Amino acid sequence: MTPRSSALDVDVELGRPGFALSVALRVEPGEVLAVLGPNGSGKSTLLGVLAGLLRPDRGRVVLGGRTLTDAGRGAHVPPHRRGVGLLAQQPLLFPHLTAEANVAFGPRARGVPRRAAREIARRWLSEVDVLELADRRPAELSGGQAQRVAVARALAAEPDLVLLDEPFAALDVDAAPALRAVLGRVLRAGGRTALVVTHDPLDALVLSDRLVVLDAGVVVEAGPTRQVLARPRTAFTARIAGLELVAGVAAPTGLRAPDGAVLAGHREPGLVDGVPAVAVFPPRAVAVHRERPNGSPRNVFPVVLAGLEPRADVVRLRAAAAPGGPGWAEGLSADVTPAAVADLGLEPGLPVWFAVKATEVTLCPAPGETVSAR
């Protein structure tokens, strides 16, 4: 059967005590969209709306030209008729059925004859590299094997849209990379339209074409995955991308931080003086000095070392604000070599200077109250 590839259009609002979701986004046919955000940002609520488990207070969900939800007209297609496949953190396989029967369940539910459904199931089990486990029941499978069967089951139903809810969260460190590669391959090969919710930027990089970031129920960042992670505009995105971020206001000479200090950097096109902006730079770009440095660095500020964390071939230095120094330096990081730690005699509680060359700093517009993800 030819895989379906459908566009998804969402424009919904949903209110709960202490929380409101207001999201407008579009996923193109065959596109994989990643959704990131801190806990409580609305990721699970959005999936619930798309799967038909939650009804929005306002707005519509349209998939492949079919209206699945229209709050204004009271229209709501139930979950089992939406053509939406959901892959959750847990495989949720039927315990009494074999792997093959689990995967054949979707085609059989659509009216596919038993023999044809069996052939579809075996093809998908082969796609995810577990055909030899076709006769085993879930209790006889490892976590990674069971999740591969769950992938096959979700795709064998030929959904118009695949929803992936932290699909690797419950797997160990050995099983997750292998399944990530398998899922990336089968989504690309089939041209599947998919939306993946994750906390891991590696999931987004491997699986998705575009990325949106939710915070407090609204989209605060959106764009091609690598672009968003390379130029984050919120502290959450910067943190998961392994970058440092300072918020302030765009000024003619750089970013004016809340204390009035200016960080020089490379301005992105369209950045206008006087608007909220952020300065972004990697920890590896931060040089550490015992005394205030002279020379080329234009961004120099005092900090107190709060901690030292060995990380592979570098040591990450965590900063606390220094007396009389900028408060925005609290929590910034610098990656230095173990040799530099020894040469400088670095230890927690020591006052030092951080220096960042302007060429290593990117100045971007800060997110507004909402960002279009279309």
UniProtKB/TrEMBL annotation:
Ranges for domain Mop: 294-365
ABC transporter domain mapped to chain residues: 5-241
Keywords: ATP-binding, Molybdenum, Nucleotide-binding, Transport
GO MF annotations, alphabetized: ATP binding
Matches recorded under SMART domains: AAA
Protein name: Molybdate transport system ATP-binding protein
